[in-house]
Specification:
This protein has a two-stranded antiparallel sheet. It is built from five helices and two strands. The protein is mostly helical. The longest helix is centred in the first third of the chain and has 18 residues, at 10-27. Helix content is 42%, strand content 3%. Helix 1 packs across helix 2 (31-41) and helix 1 packs across helix 3. The chain has helices at 10-27, 31-41, 60-69, 79-84, 98-102, and strands spanning 95-96, 116-117. The chain has one domain (10-117).
């Protein structure tokens, strides 16, 4: 898998690969879109890895959902609770400038429409 992130060790890369695999499995998106979403999520971080890495405080299923829907979507609430609270149905968060996120990696461009990712 091709990431634009700076991994300090193999463990960090493998963790991100697990997140990508979860997104593909849970949401039926392409690997390229999942990688671009991970890259976008952590593009501001100088490096990922090490024994004190904060992303390890949650598992790959948490990060797959959080990256795909965003924390403001309250994705962890069940349908009944969402309905009772008057929350809308879950929709994936849009990633604008998806081509920039991929940073010249043509592999990431598969499935990109209008320079953003949106689930149909």
């Amino acid at each position: 898998m091709k990431f634009s992130l700076n991994f300090l060790n193999l463990e960090a890369q493998e963790f991100c690969e697990k997140i990508v695999n979860e997104m593909v499995s849970l949401f039926g998106i392409t690997e390229a879109e999942a990688i671009a979403r991970v890259n976008f999520q952590w593009a501001h971080i100088e490096s990922i890895g090490g024994h004190e890495e904060l992303i390890y405080h949650e598992d790959e299923v948490f990060w797959a959902n959080d990256i795909y829907f965003g924390p403001e979507a309250y994705w962890w609430l069940g349908d009944n609770t969402r309905s009772e609270m008057g929350l809308p149905k879950l929709i994936p968060k849009e990633i604008k400038n998806a081509q920039q996120v991929c940073q010249q990696d043509m592999y990431c461009y598969k499935g990109v429409e209008n320079d953003s990712f949106r689930h149909k």
